[in-house]
Amino acid sequence: MRGGPEAYVHPVEAALSSFVIQRIWSNASIAAGHDPCVPALPGEVYYAAIPVAPDTILTGSQGSPTGEEALSSRGLKLPIGGQATLELALYSDGATAGPWSVSLQSYDPTELGISLSQTTGQNGSLIKVTLTAPPDSFAGVQFVSVSSVLVGFPPIGGLNTWQFAVLTY
């Protein structure tokens, strides 16, 4: 998702063009392979590194006395003291000005080792990600953020992110 000035746009309709509106999340847009924030920015190409996560991870409460339902997320199960891999599928809904860089960040970087087979790519590329949980890791769910930014493009306003869950056990 994007922040900064790209979060607001002027409507293209002449009668409304003096107003500024905030872009909002659209499930229909992301399901169609486009930027989830609408309305689309003129001339913008949406690109991202999307985790191909093999496991379903429960991230919410289950069997709670308050009746809350369990929430689930696609992710990766990772044994404590072990390694697991997944792929990032690089995707764009049009031609980009070149490759983009990819980085991953754990919300608790002391808990996971993360390595990538490469740090740049373009539409159709696959990047292998290896995650390692040290022997003294804690068991539980944490999230990893995947960031994509066009090479040479300033990250403010040009950063696309996805997240996935990692269950250490």
What does this molecule look like?
With 169 residues, the chain is mainly beta. The chain has 2 domains: 1-44, no CATH class; 45-168, Immunoglobulins (Immunoglobulin-like, Sandwich). It is 3% helix and 45% strand. It has 1 helix and 14 strands, in the order E-E-E-H-E-E-E-E-E-E-E-E-E-E-E. A 6-stranded mixed β-sheet has the order 6-7-14-13-9-11, with no helix packed on it. Strands 5-8-12-10 form a 4-stranded antiparallel β-sheet, with no helix packed on it. Strands 1-2 form a two-stranded antiparallel sheet. A hairpin with an 8-residue loop joins strand 13 (140-150) and strand 14. The longest helix is centred in the first third of the chain and has 5 residues, at 27-31. The radius of gyration is 18 Å and the shape is globular. Mean pLDDT is 83; it is low at 1-5.
Describe this structure in a few short sentences.
The protein is mainly beta and 169 residues long.
What are the key terms here?
mainly beta; Immunoglobulin-like; 2 domains; 6-stranded mixed β-sheet; 3% helix; globular
Q: How is the topology of this model organized?
A:
Blueprint: E1 8-9, E2 21-22, E3 24-25, H1 27-31, E4 37-38, E5 47-52, E6 55-58, E7 72-78, E8 83-92, E9 100-106, E10 113-116, E11 120-121, E12 126-132, E13 140-150, E14 159-168
Parallel strand pairs: 7-14
Antiparallel strand pairs: 1-2, 3-4, 5-8, 6-7, 8-12, 9-11, 9-13, 10-12, 13-14
